[in-house]
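For the sake of clarity, the format in which proteins appear in this thesis is described at this point. Each number in the token line that follows is a code from a learned vocabulary of backbone shapes. One such record is shown here in full, so that the layout can be seen directly:
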Amino acid sequence: MKKLIFAAVLSLGSLTAFAQDAEEAQADATEVVAAAQDDFSEIAVEELPEAVTAAVAKNYPTATINKAYVNEAKQFKLEVSLEDGTSGTLYADENGNWIEQ
């Protein structure tokens, strides 16, 4: 009987430790994404690579790029507005491939 109780307590302790590790991993991942988004420096829209402006023109033909930012990994953050008045933020790499944030 002692062994059964000991096994139950040990199992419960293991599950609790696993749950804490998962929460810490989620918090770490959130911090990495937030840090990556904060590392952008503003650049002139004219400095964007042709591949990025071409991707915007192809996928969002009514969009206007209002502001552009770049990070050390050559990823671009674009603040755009559409003719209908909506606006949003797009992320692309230097080859014009979209990045989900």
